[in-house]
Specification:
Layout lengths: L2 H31 L33
Length: 66
Amino acid sequence: MTFMHKLSCRLALLKDRLPIGALALGAGIALVACEKPVALTDPTGGSLARLVVVPRTISLLQGQST
């Protein structure tokens, strides 16, 4: 085999791997770019001490809702 034939065979193999490599790189970037969600509760495990609802009473007209 000549050098040019071997080179063309190797380039043909690389051509098939390029889209797969680009896809893997894109998936890796997307995975790194994602953020960890913020916790909604206190991580120390505290409990709710008091819940205050204001106003205590409310006046509504007919057909209104709160």
